[in-house]
Amino acid sequence: MTGISANELKTKGVLAIQTALEQQTEAVISVRGKDRFVVMNLTHYQYLRECELTAALVESNEDMAAGRYVKESAEAHLARLERME
């Protein structure tokens, strides 16, 4: 993964990010020598979000198929949540 220092980001601005993302899909921004942030282009971010949502849907479908769910009214759901606290 390509790295960008906070100082480089201060001096070069968005150009530092654009240059880094020409080489890879993600770039790490380091602050005082420690990796702190990851930046990526919007298309890659949207792809990752879609993967995350697809995985959540698969997990939900598996839970439904295995009977791991509760069917109840909104009021009953809220009451159950309060009892769990």
Strand order of the largest sheet: 1-2-3
Low-confidence stretches: none
Proportion of residues in helical segments: 55-70%
Domain module tally: 2
Averaged pLDDT, please? 94
Largest sheet: 3 strands, mixed
Total beta strands: 3
Order of helices and strands: EHHEEHH
Structural class: alpha+beta
- State the distance separating the first and last CA atoms: 42 Å
Strand content: 15-25%
Task: Tell me the overall shape.
Answer: elongated
State Rg. 21 Å
Count the DSSP helices. 4
Please tag this protein with its features:
single chain, about 80 residues, alpha+beta, 2 domains, three-stranded mixed beta sheet, about 20% strand, elongated
Walk me through this protein's architecture:
- The chain has 85 residues and is of the alpha+beta class.
- It has two domains: 2-40; 43-84, no CATH class.
- 61% of the residues lie in helices and 20% in strands.
- It is built from four helices and three strands; from the N terminus they run βααββαα.
- It has helices at 6-12, 14-23, 42-65, 74-84; strands spanning 2-5, 26-31, 34-40.
- The chain has a three-stranded mixed sheet with strand order 1-2-3.
- β2 and β3 form a beta hairpin.
- The longest helix has 24 residues, at 42-65.
- The chain is elongated, with a radius of gyration of 21 Å.
- It starts with a strand and ends with a helix.
- 5% of the residues are buried.
- The mean pLDDT is 94.
- This is Prevent-host-death family protein.
- Belongs to the phD/YefM antitoxin family.
- InterPro entries: YefM-like_sf.
